[in-house]
Design goal:
The chain is 19% helix and 32% strand. It has one helix at 56-69, and strands at residues 11-15, 18-23, 27-29, 36-38, 44-46, 51-53. This is DUF2093 domain-containing protein.
Length: 72
């Protein structure tokens, strides 16, 4: 059986409160930890930085870094 997007990195356009799939896949990587995040489990991302995060703690780490650099 053909399973498109199985074990393939997805490309997403992160928006405020949602995301749009640009290239089909089944996962993305956390911008902080590098861990694989299945799209079904993706709950945290930044539309300003266009990045995904594995959980709230890693999102907070990245936001603090971005604010310190003046990116946000």
């Amino acid at each position: 059986m053909l399973k498109l997007g199985k074990d393939r990195l997805a490309r997403l356009d992160y928006q405020s409160g949602s995301f749009r799939v640009v290239s089909a896949g089944d996962h993305v990587f956390c911008a902080v930890s590098g861990e694989k995040i299945p799209l079904a489990d993706l709950r945290y991302w930044s539309h300003e930085l266009q990045e995904a995060y594995k959980n709230a703690e890693t999102a907070n780490v990245r936001y603090a870094e971005a604010r310190q650099r003046g990116d946000l």
